[in-house]
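Suppose you are handed only these lines of text.
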Amino acid sequence: MTYPRPVAVIVLAAGEGTRMKSSIPKVLHTIGGRSLVHHAIAAARGVEPAYLQVVVRHERDRVAAHIAECDPDALVADQDEIKGTGRAVECGLAALPADLEGTVVVTYGDVPLLTSSTLADLLTAHASAGSAVTVVTAHIDDPTGYGRIVRDAAGGVARIVEHKDATDAERALTEVNSGIYAFDSGLLRAGLAALTTDNAQGEKYLTDVLGYARAQGRAVAAYAIADVWQTEGVNDKVQLARLGAELNRRTVEAAMREGAIVRDPATTWIDTTASVGRDTIVHPHTQLLGATSVGADCEIGPDTTLTDTEVGDGATVCRAQALLAVIGPGATVGPWAYLRPGTELGAEGKIGTFVETKNAQIGAGSKIPHLSYVGDATIGVDSNIGASSVFVNYDGVDKHRTVVGDHCRMGSDTMYVAPLTVGDGAYSGAGTVLRQDVPPGALAVSGGAQRNLEGWVPAHRPGTAAARAAEAALATEQGEQA
Ligand code: UD1
Ligand code: CA
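From them, the structure of the protein bound to calcium ion can be written out as follows.
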């Protein structure tokens, strides 16, 4: 991308967002795994401004703390009690060096689909036309509420009129102001100084800087974009969902263009920060969230949610939920598995049906196929954990670890009472309660020998179906013996 770098991008985020009806500041609501303001900051950062600044006011501490997490190099400026987009930029500019020169871009913190490449195109158009102001505009069917672009007889941009200040004829105009602009810094400074609050809303309108530029004989241009989504802001939770769905549609489409096979894009949710490799099949109702990265040639889903999880090439994950887990190449997970933080499944390993794992390193080729809980464990390579086993990691006060070696064959319904070590090549019998370490190669069994209390059921539960069945069976046996 070659484009003229801006000296600053000022992101406006001081508005209160009352229509969100939320205790969360508007720009902190998320779509695609990122807050609205994080999307705005990422787009701005993409054009490499010398200064990236966000203007805040409503819930300023909370918003400022969040901005520092998104982008530690972003500056935060405070808007005072004077209202309007013009005042917001004025406050922003006042907090930047006074000798700032070059192009200043203004964007909004609640417009999440705007891309860096659109900003780069704006900067290119602005520089090549030699304009003092370039405003990004969009043609929309229902322009209600937006500022309208008023053009002169020659087709040039004369000014912007706000909906509330517009005449009926102006309200019929369908080219609207997106609120995204490139300004010459000197013109912007002078234009802001000349703003008044003499309008329907009693605010300092940034839009009036365009009329000011024209009055000074400076060139004002419009950069119309066809992709209206990129100019759309979030004002309420209906728009939040609408833009969230559109962002997801774009992310899923990009994943497919990169080689992923998505069976049902409509029910697949991929965060902006997640990735999917080539020829990986994503089945319906799958969510790949946060920093999740899925390798190539995998099968993921259906009904699977992976958050901050790494999946190696060729793995299969079906009807599973995973958080902060690592699934090795060629491994198999599910159906119906719950991988909690710290789960690391080695290559070709298996976490099977109705299995929950937590803080468990499971070596290559090792399998936990059925109905088990494995918490706080290290399991070596090529070991098998029998069905219905529990790693008993909690003594009621503290958590303890279990270590199982390589090539173990552990029986079904084994209880691993931690802390515990099972040596390489060891076995356990079905139903064993392991309370002591098992040496390499040993077979561990526990519990007394089985006792059969003959005739107990007919004697103690006479007249029941079980007693009648037992009596009939015993009678048949006696008849055969006679
Ligand atoms: C503004 C434009 C309008 C444009 C529309 C596009 C002005 C006067 N009007 O409308 O022409 O069509 O955006 O959405 O600029 N903000 C502040 N401080 C303030 C006021 C707003 O930081 O004092 C921020 C808000 O947080 C928001 C953005 O500026 O991110 C736009 O504010 P909003 O009230 O939604 O826009 P309008 O003024 O209605
Ligand atoms: Ca708005």
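What can we learn from it? The pocket of calcium ion (ligand 2) is lined by residues 233, 235 (CB under 6 Å). The CA atoms of residues 103 and 350 lie 56 Å apart.
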